[in-house]
Design goal:
The complex is a heterodimer of chains A (483) and B (412). Chain A is of the alpha+beta class and 483 residues long. Chain A is built from twelve helices and 23 strands. Chain A has a six-stranded mixed sheet with strand order 9-2-1-13-21-20, with helices on both faces. The N and C termini of chain A lie far apart (53 Å). The longest helix of chain B is centred in the C-terminal third of the chain and has 19 residues. The radius of gyration of chain B is 22 Å and the shape is globular. The termini of chain B are far apart. The chains are: A alpha+beta (483), B alpha/beta (412). Chains A and B meet through helix 7, strand 19, helix 9 and helix 12 of A and strand 7, strand 8 and helix 3 of B.
Chain lengths: 483, 412
């Protein structure tokens, strides 16, 4: 059986990881971009949600709660950071906000969430001493947490590859052969034709577009863009939990939260875009100003200009139903769309992968799969110098001097970590950045950018001018100054 | 892990750190100098233009020549230089640094520490310019490194944001190496760099300088394709209807240098205007035995000033380490009037005082007043981009009469 997964975001990656555990299954992951985890997966709030605000009875509510429970083990196996920081929905002492908090609590209880309770002003101040005095109480959810979503995709794909899955990147799907109500082949831009017994469409904002390449209709995609700002680690101490305002019609609102590497993330805005703007992750002047001012109203003084490290925007796919659209097509019966993975898609992703593989694919192919007897279920631990004590680093340098050669000083990333990332599949500056955090810090690679380009060129055996930031248009250097 | 003891530990091997190491060694101290790059010299290595050294060496030198001279002095004085090293942590209470390098980890206990970590460039991310996030946007210093040391051009057609000295110098450099520089834009109503650089790097090459303008949007799929430039008002808000577009594949940023001190701000006091470490006229920080000099104190115009300050820091660090330092009071230095950046922030009246200051806005004429000392000095024409230097002999402090602060004021 050959199962083709289109899309190397968090859902596609976790699906292919599950598939790689199955006997007699050949799993292939196809990613149009040059690397996995670089679409919706890399540009969101990076929160593992509790699941109290997703309306009871929706698919997203049940998958979110289930997914949340799967995170500790998932991140352990993938060697990806996950911190249960807890979250707060903070409210002012006004009747409408009190009512909203009570509604969230009730909904959360219906969704089966434990560790959900209302905290008063005093405790709120203890949890978040820098929170604005205007907030009088909050809904605390102890199961919420933070992670690095792109690393989940990268690690899941690495693990899947170790278990025999094939991964094709930088080669978008152009169409396929459909006959007798089944997809027979998936065609790639390069001309490659891949025979398929089952196809999973996990293409983020592109789910409608990709389905249509196979003549399949899905509900129309609607797009929401969120703009974010990353703040310096110097303010990392100011926030301990994920802080939400009370939600509005547009979504969860603009938050303030810690990042797993010690910085702070603020945002997002929530702006409806034209459904054709599938690649528009540009930021706007208005959006960035809004992000700064709303962060300041939650945590006064946090959004000082000198603490801004970077801004970015991400897209969230949705449909009119405002729920996930995870469905086997009625006519093309071996085509499963994992679409409209809106918030809380990151949290739900492991549960979605389980649902797709254990139930839907089994149904489509009308067979039950046996697990391989031996699989690599844990990614070997790659050490980050940054997380190790001095004495341990001493031993490692004795073993390999490149551990002591720090390339990215902001995030303390060694040359060995960068070389390892390249050997594990990074082919671009962003590939290195997202795997190692080199260049993610406050200087934004002002100091180490040239070193990373140099190491990529050396390790990949390419010219400096052939090194890319991410996609093939994103060249970094023109030719030589003189021969 | 190796445990090492030294009299003076210097962190940073640029002009300030090298000068500090040499002067400390001259006073008889054993000195270790830590540099993170594989070669010593810091940014001097890539500043291949001339204009350095007129004050410190009384001759005009290129950056590498300036560095070479200091390097020779380091060798003469047997300063122990560790390149490719990374300071993970400094414990100021015990004056101990924890250092990584490819030869292992070291715990260095020092009699005194000089921090000479220089500055970093304000990166694109910190500017909050809306639009896409394409390749082809880079700080001027990184562009300079690519062109001068790595032998590669960063693109074909560039616009430069910010008229700081590095931006101006790169406008000329990129033009000479065959790139087209379409314009330099500066959000202030006056240039950010030295007048001589505006003339020699822009006017001589016919590169337009747009003052009171900034980049309001960047566009490009993969690589930069287009930059939108708008006029700004006094609050730096874009003026609607003034947007112009430039089709360029490269945006070079010369949007300011930031003292590189983040690893130390929890332990040492900083000055809110300079945004660097607070120091006295002996270059000592608020922690006894810890000194700082150069662009991590304030952004200086000239490497000569940085080296001169480093020299003083090294000397006093040696005194401190060798037990020769005099105990003294330190009086705060207070800004008044049109004073912007100002070094030092504290004064030890037993030592000479060198004041470096910037005016807040261009002034045709004015005077510097040191109220408590009864000193007044007139000047003609001052701009924020050019520091004014004023030396006060320590004898003059007799007039202080126990005043508890020294006021530095600039009046029109």
């Amino acid at each position: 059986m050959q199962i083709v997964v289109i899309g190397g975001g968090i859902c596609g990656s976790l699906i292919v990881r599950e598939l790689s555990h199955l006997q007699d299954v050949s799993a292939i992951l196809i990613e149009g971009k040059s690397d996995v985890g670089q679409g919706v997966t890399k540009a969101n709030s990076a929160i593992v949600h509790g699941g109290y605000d997703d309306p009871h009875g929706t698919m997203r509510a049940s998958l979110c709660v289930r997914g949340n429970g799967m995170f500790p083990q998932l991140c352990e196996e993938l060697n990806v950071p996950f911190k249960r920081t807890g979250s707060l929905v903070v409210a002012k002492d006004a009747s409408d906000e009190i009512e909203q908090i009570e509604n969230l609590l009730a909904n959360g209880k219906k969704n089966g969430i434990e560790g959900l309770r209302i905290v008063g002003a005093e405790e709120l101040r203890r949890i978040e001493p820098h929170l604005s005095d205007e907030y009088a109480f909050a809904l605390h959810c102890s199961s919420a947490g933070i992670t690095e979503p792109w690393m989940i995709a990268i690690a899941a794909v690495n693990l899947a590859t170790m278990n025999g899955a094939r991964v094709i990147t930088g080669n978008p799907v152009k169409g396929g052969k459909v006959c007798e109500g089944r997809v027979k082949e998936v065609w790639l831009e390069s001309g490659m034709r891949i025979p398929a017994d089952c196809v999973i469409n996990a293409t983020g904002v592109h789910f409608q577009e990709v389905a249509s390449l196979f003549g399949i209709e899905t509900p129309p995609v609607s797009l929401r863009r969120g703009e974010y700002i990353i703040l310096d680690k110097l303010v990392g101490d100011m926030v301990k939990t994920v802080i939400f305002p009370v939600p509005t019609e547009e979504g969860k609102g603009k938050l303030v939260l810690p990042t797993v590497d010690g910085g702070v993330l603020i945002g997002p805005t929530s702006e409806e875009l034209d459904s054709h703007a599938l690649e528009d992750v540009s930021t706007t002047d208005r959006g960035l100003r809004e992000v700064l001012s709303s962060a300041d109203s939650l945590v006064p003084g946090i959004s000082r200009f000198n603490w801004v490290v970077r801004s970015f925007a991400g897209l969230r796919p949705d449909t009119e139903e405002r729920d996930f659209f995870i469905k086997t097509d009625n006519e093309v019966k071996n085509f499963i769309t994992v679409g409209s993975i809106r918030s809380p898609g990151l949290t739900a992703a492991p549960a979605i992968a389980e649902l797709v593989v254990d139930e839907m694919i089994t149904d489509v192919l009308n067979t039950s799969f046996k697990k391989k007897e031996r699989v690599v279920s844990r990614l070997p631990r790659t050490e980050r110098i940054n997380e190790l004590p001095f004495s341990k680093i001493a031993e490692m340098i004795d073993d390999d001097p490149l551990h002591g050669k720090i390339v990215c000083q902001c995030n303390e990333v060694s040359e060995r970590e960068i070389i390892n990332a390249i050997r594990e599949g990074a082919t671009t500056v962003d590939g290195v950045k997202f795997r190692t955090r080199a260049g993610f810090g406050r200087c934004q690679a002002s100091f180490c950018g040239w070193r990373i380009v140099q190491i990529l060129s050396r390790e990949l055996g390419i010219e400096l001018s052939e090194v890319r930031m991410n996609e093939k248009e994103a060249w970094i250097l023109d030719g030589k100054v003189r021969p | 892990m190796r445990n090492i003891r030294t009299d003076v530990l210097v962190i940073g091997g640029g002009a300030g750190g090298m000068a500090a190491a040499v002067s400390a060694a001259k006073e008889g101290a054993h000195v270790i100098l830590l540099e993170r790059e594989d070669t010593i010299g810091g940014v001097l290595n890539q500043c291949i233009h001339n204009g350095f050294g007129l004050q410190f060496y009384q001759q005009e030198l290129t950056g590498p020549e300036f560095s070479y001279k200091l390097e020779n002095e380091l060798k003469e004085k047997d300063v122990h230089v560790v390149c490719g090293s990374y300071v993970r942590h400094v414990d100021f209470a015990s004056s101990t640094a924890y250092v990584l390098s490819s030869s292992g980890v070291q715990k260095i206990e020092a009699g005194a520490i000089v921090i000479a970590t220089g500055a970093r460039e304000r990166p694109f991310g910190a500017l909050l310019i809306p639009g896409d996030r394409p390749a082809g946007i880079l700080p001027a210093g990184l562009a300079q490194r690519y062109v001068n040391l790595e032998n590669h051009l960063p693109g074909k057609r560039a616009l430069i944001l910010g008229s700081g000295d590095i931006g101006l110098i790169m406008a000329r450099r990129l033009t000479l190496e065959g790139m087209e520089v379409v314009a330099v834009v500066e959000r202030m109503p006056f240039p950010g760099g030295l007048t001589r650089n505006v003339v020699q790097c822009l006017e001589d090459f016919g590169i337009p300088l747009h003052l009171s303008h900034t980049v309001t949007q960047v566009r490009g799929k993969g690589r930069l394709e287009r930059v939108e430039v708008s006029q700004v008002d006094k609050e730096f808000n874009p003026v609607p209807g003034t947007a112009k577009h430039f089709d360029v594949d490269t945006l070079i940023l010369s949007a300011g240098l930031i003292p590189h001190i983040e690893d130390y701000v929890r332990d040492l006091s900083t000055d809110p205007v300079n945004k660097g470490l607070s120091v006295s006229n002996t270059c000592e920080t608020t922690v006894r035995g810890t000194f700082a000099a150069g662009n991590n104190v304030a952004i200086f115009d000239l490497v000569d000033y940085v080296a001169a300050e480093g020299w003083i820091a090294g000397r006093h660090a040696a005194f401190r380490a060798l037990g020769k330092a005099r105990e003294s009071v330190r009086i705060p230095v207070v800004r008044k009037g049109m004073v912007g950046a100002l070094v030092p922030n504290m004064v030890d009246p037993q030592e000479h005082l060198r004041i470096y200051l910037r005016v807040k806005t261009p002034m045709d004429k004015g005077k510097i007043v040191l109220e408590e000392l009864g000193i007044e000095k007139d000047f003609v024409y001052a701009v924020p981009s050019e520091m004014i230097q004023l030396v006060v002999n320590r004898d003059k402090f007799e007039k202080m009469n126990g005043a508890d602060s020294l006021t530095v004021e600039v009046l029109p």
